[in-house]
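Working notes for the structural subgroup meeting. M.R. asked for a predicted model of this chain before we commit to crystallization trials. I am recording the input and output together here so anyone reviewing the notebook later can reproduce the run.

Input as submitted:
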Amino acid sequence: MEKIRLADISTRAPKDLDKKETKEKTEAILTELDELQNLLYAEGKHSVLVVIQGMDGSGKDGVIRNVFGELNPQGVTVKSFKVPTAEEYAHDFLWRVHQHAPAKGMIQLFNRSHYEEILVTRVHKWCDDESARRKMKAINDFEQLIQVHNSTHILKFYLHISPEEQHQRLTERLHDPTKMWKYNEKDLEEAKLWNIYMQVYEEAFENCNTVPWTIVPADQNWYKEYIIASALHQLLMGLDMQYPGLKK
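Returned structure, recorded in token form:
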């Protein structure tokens, strides 16, 4: 696999892509996804794990709201991984993650994920390279385990935002009353570590690619949502699902 270089990948939609037409396509896809998710839930043979990673301000919450918020809430769950609790610290780093692996019939969203253990911890030198390599192997084993033993299909998205767009969005949180609740003074400090974050992300892509990553240009929300909705639609369409008949 060719090494992913984030600096070489655009954070914006292709210039010839029409915004209005793309948004209409997204709406059509979301309509079909509603039925496909219902079929996934009813058949109960497969599950889907959606991993959403990205820098602060890349729009993780917006994707969850605008793409997955259109689906039946009975079949979709969201887990946002914060700083581990004392109990979680007392276990291996995947202990708290495995509890939220999706059951058959469900779509599980990870807003940030088990990958934080080889990202933010490395940026801040809380995890050395040798420990990170062991954790990467454990992540690969975990993803393979749920794929093989629970028919879990995994989609991994990195929301690829430019530093300029990130700065604008973080600054908006200081002035927009509807976004002030998101403001965290640490976000701007973390943004100063951009180059280090890009390096550890690229190493994560390289070493944890048994399930491939999708790098999603994220400067324009309409294009980001189209890419993610399309990927989920393609996955579910490929499962050849059927509604079960009457129970005997």
